[in-house]
Write a structure and sequence with these properties.
Number of helices: 14
Structural class: mainly alpha
Largest sheet: none
Radius of gyration: 30 Å
Shape: flat
Strand content: under 5%
Number of strands: 0
Helix content: over 70%
């Protein structure tokens, strides 16, 4: 066999290779990248102008002695380090507001989630007719104006002619002045907040329950598990992601609670219902911008820590 026959045939060059093709591909990717940046530019500009910029500005403000009188010369203020944070933590009213907020969260969040889960189970397992009507009725307070809700609850909690005290008088109980009592003002706000917010968590729980296959409960029933055992050991573990989501969102909302005391009690009586958010708002109104922003970031850190703990406790195992 000759040497010519042993030579490998020449492989034709691919049309998709070569410097020219790679240059064209690089140019196409560059144009796509440029187009992507052009399309995202409005969001980037708005984010920097209205989110990142104010956040960084307020963080810097918390380390200065900026007050209302300094607004005309904001760059002439003095840096004070962490003294605003120390001043906030040493403020007796701020500590009282922190305790009130902790009370509101520790009582309100479990009550809201428990009531929401109970209503979701009832709608999913018990109520089949008019289910949509009940969903709307439970969710309606969530989208109702706080002013309208305040009017309703002021009527319910009125000391003499209120609906609640009238019902209590039927069984011989003399109801207190709910919103003017240091003992009962905060429970009244918690009761109103639970009624107002449980509908949102209920909708999410209901979606989680309807996403659980019916075969799960059927298997538990075949194994001899009762209704409570199936719910405790089968349904609740499968609802863990839903419980995590609702607890985090509800907890964040309750840690920032502001509208309830601002509209119903103005923080009284004797600061028994003032919250951290409300006291921070008052400090902004007084012109103490440095201290107020420090209080805001203290609340931010608390929210981050509480959310982290919730993720650690309720994450899927």
């Amino acid at each position: 066999m000759s040497s010519a026959t042993l030579q490998a045939p020449e492989v034709p060059r691919s049309k998709n290779s070569g410097p020219a093709v790679r240059y064209r591909r690089s140019g196409a990717r560059g144009r796509q990248t440029a187009a992507a940046w052009i399309l995202t530019l409005p969001f980037v500009v708005l984010f920097l102008a209205f989110t990142a910029g104010p956040v960084l500005g307020s963080l810097g403000m918390s380390f200065t002695d900026l007050k209302q009188r300094d607004l005309r010369t904001p760059f002439a203020v003095n840096g004070v380090g962490f003294s605003n944070y120390v001043k906030a933590l040493q403020d007796e009213t701020f500590r009282k507001a922190a305790l009130n907020t902790a009370y509101f969260v520790l009582v309100g969040v479990p009550l809201t989630l428990a009531l929401a889960l109970a209503a979701a189970v009832l709608l999913d397992r018990g109520v089949k007719r008019f289910q949509s009507l009940f969903k709307v009725a439970y969710y309606l307070p969530v989208i109702t104006s706080i002013v309208a809700i305040a009017v309703i609850w002021r009527f319910v909690l009125a000391p003499e002619s209120g609906l609640l005290n009238t019902v209590l008088s039927w069984v011989g109980i003399d109801g207190p002045n709910w919103l003017a009592s240091k003992t009962w003002a905060m429970p009244s706000l918690i009761m109103m907040a639970v009624w107002r917010n449980f509908g949102s968590a209920m909708i999410i729980f209901l979606a989680g329950l309807q996403g659980i296959p019916a075969t799960v409960e059927e298997a538990g029933q075949l194994d001899g598990a009762g209704s409570w055992q199936r719910f405790r050991y089968l349904i609740v573990p499968l609802l863990r992601p839903t419980i995590l989501f609702t607890s985090v969102t509800t907890g964040i909302g309750y840690l920032q609670f502001f509208e309830e005391p601002f509209v119903m009690t103005q923080g009284g009586p004797l600061n028994s219902t003032v919250s951290v958010s409300m006291y921070t708002y008052q400090q902004f109104g007084f012109g103490n911008y440095g201290v107020a922003t420090a209080m805001s970031y203290i609340l931010f850190v608390v929210i981050a820590v509480v959310t982290f703990i919730q993720f650690r406790l309720l994450r899927e195992k």
